[in-house]
## 1
Amino acid sequence: MEKLYFASDYQEGAHPAVLRRLCETNLLKTPGYGLDGFCEAAREKIRAACSCPGAAVHFLCGGTQANAVVIDAFLQPWQGVLAAESGHISSHEAGAIEWGGHKVLTLPQQFGKLRASVICDACERWNTDANRAHMVMPGMAYISQPTEYGTLYSLAELEEISGVCRAFGIPLYLDGARLAYALACPGNDVTLPDLARLCDVFYIGGTKCGALFGEAVVISDSGRMEHFFTIMKQHGALMAKGRLLGLQFDALFTDGLYLSIGLPAIHAAERLRGEFLDRFGWRLAFASPTNQIFVLLDNPTMERVAEKVEFSFWEKNDDSHSIVRFATSWATRPEEVDALIAAIE
Amino acid sequence: MEKLYFASDYQEGAHPAVLRRLCETNLLKTPGYGLDGFCEAAREKIRAACSCPGAAVHFLCGGTQANAVVIDAFLQPWQGVLAAESGHISSHEAGAIEWGGHKVLTLPQQFGKLRASVICDACERWNTDANRAHMVMPGMAYISQPTEYGTLYSLAELEEISGVCRAFGIPLYLDGARLAYALACPGNDVTLPDLARLCDVFYIGGTKCGALFGEAVVISDSGRMEHFFTIMKQHGALMAKGRLLGLQFDALFTDGLYLSIGLPAIHAAERLRGEFLDRFGWRLAFASPTNQIFVLLDNPTMERVAEKVEFSFWEKNDDSHSIVRFATSWATRPEEVDALIAAIE
Amino acid sequence: MEKLYFASDYQEGAHPAVLRRLCETNLLKTPGYGLDGFCEAAREKIRAACSCPGAAVHFLCGGTQANAVVIDAFLQPWQGVLAAESGHISSHEAGAIEWGGHKVLTLPQQFGKLRASVICDACERWNTDANRAHMVMPGMAYISQPTEYGTLYSLAELEEISGVCRAFGIPLYLDGARLAYALACPGNDVTLPDLARLCDVFYIGGTKCGALFGEAVVISDSGRMEHFFTIMKQHGALMAKGRLLGLQFDALFTDGLYLSIGLPAIHAAERLRGEFLDRFGWRLAFASPTNQIFVLLDNPTMERVAEKVEFSFWEKNDDSHSIVRFATSWATRPEEVDALIAAIE
Amino acid sequence: MEKLYFASDYQEGAHPAVLRRLCETNLLKTPGYGLDGFCEAAREKIRAACSCPGAAVHFLCGGTQANAVVIDAFLQPWQGVLAAESGHISSHEAGAIEWGGHKVLTLPQQFGKLRASVICDACERWNTDANRAHMVMPGMAYISQPTEYGTLYSLAELEEISGVCRAFGIPLYLDGARLAYALACPGNDVTLPDLARLCDVFYIGGTKCGALFGEAVVISDSGRMEHFFTIMKQHGALMAKGRLLGLQFDALFTDGLYLSIGLPAIHAAERLRGEFLDRFGWRLAFASPTNQIFVLLDNPTMERVAEKVEFSFWEKNDDSHSIVRFATSWATRPEEVDALIAAIE
């Protein structure tokens, strides 16, 4: 029997609308490096969806690459990036940020989120430290929506963080690798125009949200990063056939697809959460309203389920319990959810 | 009227067999990061095509990225990479190699090629320089097949270069961004097994050779670079959906497709070279047997042709003449060649 | 009235024996870059003092430079360095390690010290993490003797740490910026030969211990770092007049001077600690047996003392108390201690 | 018999006035990191000598370090530094500039000098290259006075170079490792105020010009590099006892010492040049008016002289001839010149 896959949200190819677009246009000839009409059309649609006509939009291949290029582009050499200890750049990018020369200044998190007051304290502490000229200066704040724990910043929280960053003059960067799952979540009150208004730069995730691959970096003030193109090239992040990325984001931003593409994942996750709690009596490791479900399992249960289902081992909780993650995606079908529930029973 | 496109070989999407493979498998679920069965199958086919069962094969997204990751992985911090002045890494990668901390040690070229004797002299010069401990040590040699000028190394030349590199204990790296056009060229006598035997590492170009995107790095001795995966991640070069690259190379290495995929480009280029010389009386800037044709045009002719055709401006020759490049590709159809000839007349 | 200086141990020039040596030899001519006889003599004396005839000894200008060069030389690109959160490289070197491309993997400390078990846990956690190929690998452990809090590792602790590092195959590096103050401390049981035996690399601090400037890096196995000289040059850390460093360390290692040079500092610190506690009723922020005394003062007292004495503000404790540091040095005279006590009263 | 040393100008210690200053002040206590009064006094004297009251002056330890820090501070990540092929940063700094992430864009030289027209052409070529966004942008011009071949820029040449740099908006940086020998040269017409007026940043060499060690970086517009202190620290280039550098430059800029300190070297070199040509019939490899003399010797002569004299082998000229360098210094005495002449005869 084939295993059931709930290990992550990058296990399938692309949404059919995206693939169709690539097929239809396959033999058309265009200029390279993102200077083609498809990229330009996608940029226009993204600017419109963000209500941010002055934004620069750049397309990159993946999340770690987007983080490394954006952070390197925005920071001065003597600056570091503030991030939660649980932030992806802190722990799971093989030191890509440090390889680029910058320290990740880790701060305590709460359910995967940075609080405005924590950022504020860190900046004030640096500002008032007698040794600050010997220390790495906070030069950017990095947050994720949803976070690495599947949680969401509320609009009020995001406004407060943005306010602190502006008060200290540091740009706010939001990693939206799974942004479609935030946007599709009933409890979410943060829109794309909010992100463009409150962040200095963010990326709209494609790889985990219906594209074959690709992330769209949105720099709210297009005049700010004149040399971003060359910095991309220097990082090996500029695609010769940039149109591939433009075509995909054009499809994702046609008829509002990106805003609804996460719905099947959210519905599947809600149903699973309900069954995990009510039917199986499992405990959530922490509450998350999006497409990632973190549960605390005793080890024999974990091992039994693992025989039939691919999920992610998250971390050891104690000697007899573990935290594991089940992830749904835009491609998850109700039958797969049924099968998972049947497999656990 | 639409313009005719002969500016480069990355203007279309993918070969139909590649696209078909992506479509057929689109909703299958696989593990991420290149650990899936499609990648493994592609690796096996590439090892077989190279007669190199012990090779490690890694898939990357593009040429500059492949160069940066490979060179960074193989060099020690105090070493630089020998390359022709005309080498892609020397001039057209926005300093990606230096950004990674390494000097490109440029050497004179002849028709885009490095000669073995030039590499030998450079290594000997360093070895015998009283100040060598204050200088960047040659730690790798970089060549391209075909070269940036469309020319080819013969097997004899490659054997000689390989011999010099081994004598001095430095790895030989071959950039095969356009390798399919070398392999399809009647005058070529260098095979994939020759490359695996004579180089320490090389990459088989996909982006310009029928893939949507992607390059396959072949490290002849798989035990040599244990941490290549992590180095890829650190460079932002590890795709979450690594299967996309595996699927494409699986298609390209099924039924020998990669060995013949360049033929239409070579035929088109041969016909164009003949017409340029015989019908229009143009002069070649240098002889190249592959899919790039460099011609010397007087400026009024160049401007007249530019009204109807997209080609690449290469460089100014003198005040009244320029060198321009016409490139064909795996996708070039005979009708397009006809149209180009008609457009020039 | 001149202020009394107890802010640090790098406020004077050099020990008279060091200065005399520089003066005596001033107009002699020697080769550059540390290839002279004075450097060679100093290396021999250090090897003898460490009972480590096979050691390589390199002279650098300062502590941050020594840390950056050593860590960069020993780590592979995908590795990071384990360090206490309070480690100098973590916080007060302006990101020099990250600028060199490496992550500082911070671990919790106790009185400024890393425990062997904490290093062991970190290595095991990495070894067993399913995502370890996406994470920075621990490639070295960094400790300081005395620590940044003036505390000392015992021989037993150091042996345990060394054992853990060897079990996991990672080099142990000890920062001895203030090593003379450890060696002069009655409670210390770690000798130079112990350091050479238990560490893979360490540095013997000169700048804070009687030299004008300079640190001697000792690599226990001289065959290990063949290219250290070139790495120094690449970091801008190779002195043209390397003899200046050799001469100073030659003086410091003549007649055991380095082993006793810290005594005046230790005596002064002991006396101050006694008076602070007994006469003034102050509280120590933490116990330290070396030349740094950390006291907890209420803010009015701190401000009153600051009018007459230069000391280091360490950190805010609560709204009404602060932690401040008084440092003695090899040059501290009993009269200065008397004056300090009188000034506080 | 002891050998005669004419291999370089960093073979002795310091000028007596410098050493005296260090001795006199040895036990005075000052704050660290260049924030002391001696550094401030030296800065004031240098600003006065340069007629540049708005300059920032920073003290570094050596030439390669100064080059690496300055170039890294001034360049943006996507920029490289223009330099002569013979420039010190191009060839003899072990890749320190590339290690910092920047390409050295080498240009042809004439007698070690860059011509204004060559810089202008390079900038124009970049500006008009269709691929410039894929290339390293010229972001600074680096020249040396005297050059690595001992030659001098005239004021007219320097004004022309400065004009070109300003026209293209790139800073001009002058490496003055041996500046005292230029200033003492009868044929020189470039003063310190000229340098401050025409360059954006330059350094006044101490190590080779009478200091024990140290270089003074002068940034003409002090507002330009607010974070230079932290960049120094990040490079491991900030001395704890910064006063050592301040004291030395204070001595060198008292009573115009720096302007005359090179005279003995110039006189000795002039006499040697005369004797080499007239008495021994040797040929100069190229004319240089400063303290470095490059002669072309047949190999038997070279070997004979080498038995008694330390000089620098420069490069092989042909199978039977070599170019060698004799260097004089501020410390060269007439008797040593006599002895050298006698030794050659």
Note: Chain D touches chain A at residues 72, 76-78, 101, 133-134, 137, 227, 229-231, 233-234, 238 (CB under 8 Å).
## 2
Amino acid sequence: MRALFLNGTLKPSPETSNTGALAAYVGDRLAEHGVEVEHVRLVDHDVAPGVVSEAVRDGDGWPALHAKVVAADIVVFATPTWMGQPGSVIKGAMERLDALMSETQDDGTPMAYNKVCGVIVTGNEDGAHHVIAELAQAAIDVGFTFPGQAWTYWNKGPGPSDAEYLTSDEQEWTHSTGDAMAHVLVHAARALAAVPVPKPPNA
Amino acid sequence: MRALFLNGTLKPSPETSNTGALAAYVGDRLAEHGVEVEHVRLVDHDVAPGVVSEAVRDGDGWPALHAKVVAADIVVFATPTWMGQPGSVIKGAMERLDALMSETQDDGTPMAYNKVCGVIVTGNEDGAHHVIAELAQAAIDVGFTFPGQAWTYWNKGPGPSDAEYLTSDEQEWTHSTGDAMAHVLVHAARALAAVPVPKPPNA
Amino acid sequence: MRALFLNGTLKPSPETSNTGALAAYVGDRLAEHGVEVEHVRLVDHDVAPGVVSEAVRDGDGWPALHAKVVAADIVVFATPTWMGQPGSVIKGAMERLDALMSETQDDGTPMAYNKVCGVIVTGNEDGAHHVIAELAQAAIDVGFTFPGQAWTYWNKGPGPSDAEYLTSDEQEWTHSTGDAMAHVLVHAARALAAVPVPKPPNA
Amino acid sequence: MRALFLNGTLKPSPETSNTGALAAYVGDRLAEHGVEVEHVRLVDHDVAPGVVSEAVRDGDGWPALHAKVVAADIVVFATPTWMGQPGSVIKGAMERLDALMSETQDDGTPMAYNKVCGVIVTGNEDGAHHVIAELAQAAIDVGFTFPGQAWTYWNKGPGPSDAEYLTSDEQEWTHSTGDAMAHVLVHAARALAAVPVPKPPNA
């Protein structure tokens, strides 16, 4: 079983990414369940704006990432919060995933059927529930299944501050929720692997 | 296998509900899969504002509906669109469902685990995707699993109009999408019944 | 100049409302600017589900509140956060306000033109920015003007807790932001009173 | 008086942009009111991911656009709809605008105070109201004033299709609403120019 984490931080490597750090925590939990885990920092891959799986210009990093999504059983969308909303980088990846709607597996089943997904959010302020709503809806639109409570987040409030996940002494709820997230992702993925949803009537 | 449709129309019976009509269409498809289907029009049940499962005042209709949710394998949230957003009546039901977060099944598994849900939206104007986002996130928060593409909708645009689902001659996409919705709901519910997600580590 | 605060707490009087307490703070600041301030706790007024200004059933509390909205220069929408979203009670009031779209002032100007609005949010968890987005969009839809930064909020995180605005020792940012909210509301209302937006070409 | 249109189409020039076409329509109406209008297609300007006004890497197109925003009295955010949500390109611009929160005019007033903004949305499907909500909230966060009904949109439904604004024979509501949008933008901008909101107490 394979899991892919798409990290939508705005900061290119090697800058520290709080979002990447929380993704690493949850990825380690999935690995303990025997899942093969890969992390991608999107901003390092020059993903072009667009809505197709193929390259839209020279150097477009998306086609290689599309192949990783296709190969994964579990996809986790991780993003910082800006103005209470998902960041533009993860949004750019979701737009490229829009193309999955017209792609199918060998037997005609929509490409994302029987794949499960989850969301990780960090921020120095309010917004996680809404970020989860936006990313869940977009992923469900293209066929991913979102298991109950397959998310975790870290932020603080009220108001903006310099607080951040990595240096916070309030990580306990975030980690406990992340442990449960890994648990439901792996078990839901196993259920759909054992008893898959077949091709729908309108396929 | 049991399915419960919660219809959040603002109009009490016996007024015609376009939302109820589209819910009936999808319910009939679930019945064809052998599912036992029940429809509830929330506004007829005097649901009090609140966030607990128990009655919050005399005549509060929620406790009886809570029992139906607990007994269901599939719950469908159906609502009209007002100002591009979910209606207040379905929102009131979601708030009562917040209490599921601290309720468990006999073995300690969170109450909504291994239940699946979907969304039905009607409107005379734009808003369905966002309504799906709001209801999906709230349902996922309390533990429901949202299978890929387990929704359908009807609306028109651009701008408001007198058009409505029941009298429209453009129902084909809505019905085809509703057929697929019933298909994924029943198959995902079967997968989670056969190979259920067990109690998570933070339970 | 008149300001109306619509408090969408789910709790009937005389229960303590954190949302009402923060609304009172901002109302007091408006009063210091010479504004006549009125607070309404919606749940005490038996507002029926619906989308018209007139009573939709016996005892419907909305028509009296509609008259207060029409008489106000400043309307503040105050609500608790549930599941990261606006509460159902304030949503019910927004739906009734939908009717303003087809009502006009004596000279044919849309009813809500030259009225300004703001938002107050409380919660024990994440969600304020999204609540502001939902209520701002609905109010703008029907014609209210939303001045820059005309909002304040209080919540905590990460994760749910028993923390609340009234007993918190972290009120400073919330109050400072509320001071600015009162300032921009009163100044923007004065600007639109002095140089009002006239009837639009599509009226 | 100056108006700046930021077009968030995903398609680089010289591809046809429906969003740009509707922005041109509203821009022409503003010009009839005597406003000096400039249109920018963001994707042509190599805007880097980030949250500051200064260049974050070589060739970053944002600093020049930031200067245009600062010089404008009216800013219109125009975007296509993807999965019912704002596109990633306009989101990237909003993130750069986050920096306005700590910038001020010569007299200490927050940079975006007394600037007004509006939103234009196109799409082949549902989503405009939510796009307006997201962009309105982000713009209000940093200090822009959003006048009542300062938006217009074009889309179709139910379901996706090949329909588009430019070739549609249903442009009338969109244009009439766009006429009103230009009207309220120019009149609200004049009101705030004549009677500006001064520096707030927390500045």
Note: Residues 1 and 35 of chain A are 5 Å apart (CA to CA).
